[in-house]
Amino acid sequence: MRWVSALSQRPSLEAAIKEVVELAQDHLRASPDLGLVFISSAFASDYSRLMPLLQEQLCLPTLIGCGAGGVVGMNSRHQAQEIEGEPALSLMLANLPDVKVHPFHISADDLPDLDSPPDQWVDLIGVKPEDQPQFIILVDPYFGQINDFLQGLDYAYPGSVKVGGLASTGVMGGTTGVFCGSRRYSEEIVGLALHGNIVIETIVAQGCRPIGHPYRVTQGERNIVLEVETQGEDGDLEMASSGVSVRLSPLEALQDLVQDLNEEDRQLAQNSLFVGVVRDEFKQKLEPGDFLIRNLIGVDPRAGAIAIGDRVRPGQRIQFHLRDSRTSAEDLELLMERYQRQASSFPEELTNAAALMFSCLGRGEGLYGEPNFDSELFRRYLNIPLSGFFCNGEIGPVGNGTFLHGYTSVFGICRQRKN
Prior knowledge:
- This protein has about 425 residues and is of the alpha+beta class.
- About 25% of the residues lie in helices and about 35% in strands.
- Keywords: Cell membrane, Membrane, Transmembrane, Transmembrane helix.
């Protein structure tokens, strides 16, 4: 297994393609089985020409990609770069001798009903669950049923990792596109199911830190939290002196919490407050990565209720979170340290590994005030080829499910299976 990543900032599409192909082939030194291409929306008028031009030079059996407001790749000095709002082309090539690569493209009309058996989802993808496929998914943002697709994919392939993102455009908007083979597709999903001697491991950095302590939802309807029950620091119920747990409206819980914050966090809570939903109902000591972060959509002062960007049900635990650049950096570093410790047991499998980076348009230089922050931090811990793009939404697992995220950096680390 070999992977290479190449990046060009040439303003001409033909010149950019020539540069990335030459750089990638020089470093791969093997016949490529797979290509992934990410193209800046500055080239939007050339999207229809991208895949035919690439295939002329590479003649790849499998090639997928998408357009984006920013792309990530390795420059000629082997440094990771994030190019935002400027012409850029990123190409990753892979030689995968013991891996089967199955590409697919799907429209919303192709999706089975969510009540359908898993066999219909397997027929849609074309790969057996027992093959343990790993998925890379690129989605046109006008594909309207992404959550249904992810839910169905988890249903049919519960043990498989799924990573990816929604194609994006520049600040001013414009044309989107996802690509497979020699064609551009609109309002569709393109993807890969990889199986054989390959695993994809994930780092999902949602960039938030918890404040206060957890609450258990006691009343909720759809995405509305109506009542919560206090939880202790370790997740156990915090009992009142009478032996009865304390129940209150989520707005009361939030008001009590804000009063205890320092002035900096109190200001941050005015526009960067989120809700984390605990994914593992049985885990007592909660850590970063245990929460699915969702937007706080609104508050009903009369009912004391809050609305969040996901369905809730009684029994789930929630905790309020804050997000800023420092928190985002610390969150990613903590997760990288954790992965590095885990990976120390299989250093050989990482020798020929690579990573795909799917980062929110709301991160990058706009969040950190400096370029290449997430990619450089990642490469400090894992010095492997990196390619990817800035997304309209990021796809990655939390707990046992796969979700569409926001303000997140998802890394998919592709490596050989552990011997």
